[in-house]
Amino acid sequence: KAGVTQTPRYLIKTRGQQVTLSCSPISGHRSVSWYQQTPGQGLQFLFEYFSETQRNKGNFPGRFSGRQFSNSRSEMNVSTLELGDSALYLCASSADGREGAKNIQYFGAGTRLSVL
Amino acid sequence: AQKITQTQPGMFVQEKEAVTLDCTYDTSDPSYGLFWYKQPSSGEMIFLIYQGSYDQQNATEGRYSLNFQKARKSANLVISASQLGDSAMYFCAMRESRGGADGLTFGKGTHLIIQP
Q1: B55, CA 20 to 30 Å: which among A71, A76, A78, A106?
Q2: pLDDT tens digits, A93-114
Q3: Do A107 and B32 touch (CB under 8 A)?
Q4: B22: burial class by Cβ within 10 Å (0-12, 13-18, 19+)?
């Protein structure tokens, strides 16, 4: 079974631009979550989608948005990029659609975004 | 206050020795899950092991075991017979049932280096 696939693996953008990252979950998984990883802040939760609906959201500005398609693939968009948005963006999928503690998330290799 | 604390920023261990990575957590939710992930330099987060707050026995997965001490709010990862390929960042994470809106909460990680 193929794992979580994130594209592209690397991106270089300039301040003020916008960017879209893509995530294909493990086949059969319906929940997709996004995380931002930086050296300073560590791993932080962005949002979670389930059945095309945003179910949970972390503490990020509105410039960060996402969506999920009917095939469970998800995209994340960051508008008006800032230097501080440089990070590794990780996508995770899980099979268990229920909210709750046991919801094992399987991660992709991430998209490394550099904002110049 | 930090919900997940990993007090060992880095560790050097000789190959074939056992390793214990520390993790303490803070929650008032009676139902929660604890996770350990491994992140090699490639960036992908690899799920290792899960422990539920109501699980009576410590979780084990091959060479990985989780030393769960609920009263101490401790969930240490034990790797038996370490291998060179175990060199990576290791993250402890928690998901609360009631507060699942925040996704997974991660610790700052421990950088483990296995020496031959």
Answers
A1: A106
A2: 998 656 555 678 999 999 999 9
A3: no
A4: middle
